User: Which sequence fits this backbone?
């Protein structure tokens, strides 16, 4: 299947700093990528839809100035958690659909990034 | 927007027995229903999916049924094995293009040897 890679897998930062997480589709182009957040033992909550060449679409309740998303190319989307605070500590995971001809449109996930804010 | 509910939240079954997880959705326009398996510390992976023009789909020990009228769909795992232990998520979306997926709350399945 298609490969989505995410980096870093773990990051620890001090409160007030910003953290950037990268999501890459390695073997296919993705005009759209999805960023999810997952708390321990909880579901995948969609934060935003990242659109190549245009602004991201944020879900209700997600602060766009807090979680900056940039989709600069067809294979890369970044999520920047600005001025991180302990309550931002979570597992962030990106995903993209492989829509190449003949494929089912399955949603593939990156490895996830565990953010811990001290 | 779409709302997906999933039950039960935890499920324990004896090895060899069957497991059933159920989901309901709210958006009648949804027509794509995948199931994902997430092992501890790993990324979710698709195990089976179904589209609204099909009522049932089977892949070896795994099957999914869909009742579009009642807006619910279920995952059935037969002859369970220890490696089936994981968290399972159902999801729904309007189509399989670039529409967003809304996930259920997850079911932690434990297979008892």
Assistant:
């Amino acid at each position: 299947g298609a490969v989505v890679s995410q980096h870093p897998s773990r990051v620890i930062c001090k409160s007030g700093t910003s953290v950037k997480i990268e999501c890459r589709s390695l073997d296919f182009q993705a005009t759209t990528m999805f960023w999810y957040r997952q708390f321990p033992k909880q579901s995948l909550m969609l934060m935003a839809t990242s659109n190549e060449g245009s602004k991201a679409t944020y879900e209700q309740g997600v602060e766009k100035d807090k979680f900056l998303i940039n989709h600069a190319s067809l294979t890369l989307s970044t999520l920047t958690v600005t001025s991180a605070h302990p309550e931002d500590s979570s597992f962030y995971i990106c995903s993209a659909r492989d829509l190449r001809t003949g494929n089912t449109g399955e949603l593939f996930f990156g490895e996830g990034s565990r953010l811990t804010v001290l | 927007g779409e709302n997906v509910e999933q039950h039960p939240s935890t499920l324990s079954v004896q090895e060899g027995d069957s497991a059933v997880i159920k989901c309901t959705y709210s958006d009648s326009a949804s027509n794509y229903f995948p199931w994902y398996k997430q092992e501890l510390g790993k990324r979710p992976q698709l195990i089976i999916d179904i589209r609204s023009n099909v009522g049932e789909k089977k892949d070896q020990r795994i099957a999914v049924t869909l009742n579009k009228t009642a807006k619910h769909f279920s995952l059935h795992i037969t002859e369970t094995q220890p490696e089936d232990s994981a968290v399972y998520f159902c999801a729904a979306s309007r189509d399989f293009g670039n529409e967003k997926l809304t996930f259920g709350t997850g079911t932690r399945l434990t297979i008892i040897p």
